[in-house]
Known about the structure:
Blueprint: E1 2-6, H1 8-15, E2 23-27, H2 31-36, E3 40-42, E4 48-50, E5 57-60, E6 62-66, E7 74-78, H3 84-89, E8 99-100, E9 106-107, H4 112-118, E10 120-121, H5 133-145, E11 151-152, H6 154-166, H7 174-185, H8 190-199, H9 203-206, H10 208-211, H11 217-225, H12 230-238, H13 243-253, H14 257-274, H15 281-291, H16 297-314, H17 320-334, H18 338-342, H19 347-367
Amino acid sequence: MHIYKVGGAVRDRLLGRPVSDIDWLVVGATVEEMHAKGYRPVGADFPVFLHPQTGEEYALARTERKSGRGYGGFTFHASPDVTLEQDLIRRDLTINAMAEDEQGVIHDPYHGQEDLSQRLLRHVSPAFAEDPLRVLRVARFAARYAPLGFQVADETLELMRQISASGELQALTAERSWKEIERALMEDQPQVFIQVLSACGALPELMPELERDIDTLPALQQAALHKQPIHVRWACLLRGLEPAAIKALNQRFKAPRECQELAVVVAEFADRVDDALTLAPADLLQMLQKFDVYRRPQRFEDFLAACEMAARGIDDSIYPQAAYLRKAAAVARAVDVKPLLEAGLTGQALGEALKAQRLEALETYKLD
């Protein structure tokens, strides 16, 4: 029984990057032996165990065989006879197919260290083409390691083109696709993710709406530079699309509600923000009312952030519209409802009076 660190923990240590999660691989053990040593089984697809003290996951070495379509279309076989090399060859990229034993020795049968030095994302074996999710994973790794100069190897990009043309991408579930998209968009260079998907023909299969309009990539890059959350980045990517196209993308990937809502309002109101300094007070109030800045101030902040990222993507300079609208929202929120209640106003009359006072406050703000 031999235990190895595998995958990302080895890769990132060799790159000098922080290691957060460690994947452990057990070679030469049976399920019964794991039980006897106090490991607790988890998972139904293949034998994975939790360490009795640390709670970390330990997986038995396994092989896999394609048995159906999509990410889940595989049959796994775990056995004490499965070697380290057999387990590693089923992995996606050579830089993810390295192992480190308990003495700190690196086992690298597929030349991952060489590809690390050459800054290449290269597939381990032709079996790479059996799993369509790997198209998204490689594009995500390209986004993550772009700042270090990594590129997708030509032969791997060709395999990704074959997968894209095969129709296998359509077999991916919305949940698995969104998980990869979300992680990719939260990388430091998320625009590279979209560029790689376009280069291998996956973008028209997964997001045909964007294939016709990817001018939003500078906005997405700015959103990453300014450490914006996922819903702002998603809205930046989709800005410029028609509402129907945004709705289709949201539904296709079952994007979280916050992402869906922000993408829609950015598309609907972004042009008004660009012209904010010249908006009439009544139009300004209508926008603030639409966003419900009184009860949901953060959504308006996220909206302004997305608009600012788009503007910076064109001309990386100060965006005065954002500060102007933040102040306008504060002015509208500052109107005190208490005197109106004390005057006995209720229902529609109260709403109209409050709206009139907010409009008056915005008119004064405009004059200032």
